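Data deposition worksheet. Section B asks for the primary sequence of the deposited chain exactly as it was used as input, without tags or linkers unless they were present during the calculation. Section C holds the resulting structure in token form. Section D is free text for depositor observations; keep each observation to a single sentence. Incomplete worksheets are returned to the depositor.
Section A, Depositor: J.P.
Section B:
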Amino acid sequence: MRVKNENLLDDSGPVDLSLSADLKSVWLGHIANYSIQLQFTGAPQGNFRLQASNDPGRIDAASGVLQVSNIAIWTDIADSAQTISAAGDHMWTVENAGYTWVRVVWTQTGGSGTLTSARAYVKGI
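Section C:
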């Protein structure tokens, strides 16, 4: 069984919620279930949502950026948008994911804050 707890932030640590740097995408090959947990501080205003892709990507590439460099189609996952208006946390739990890749997207509408933690836990065959 494949089980992994993965940090989605750049290795440099917390990032400003302008999210000028992308969060890492997660390869879901052989995964049945996953959860993604975010923690943020400050006074952010905007929304997080999940996007998925079935493009093959390059899972054997040397870095996360190269792994997803040829993914062209990202589709919003229905009902995954979460409006944020204060410091806090949020978690998505997904069962029976039927796609190859998932990522978190932030759309800022105002305010400012810091994403202090972003982790994915995956479990599958």
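Section D:
Residues 7 and 69 are 19 Å apart (CA to CA).
The chain has a mean pLDDT of 86.
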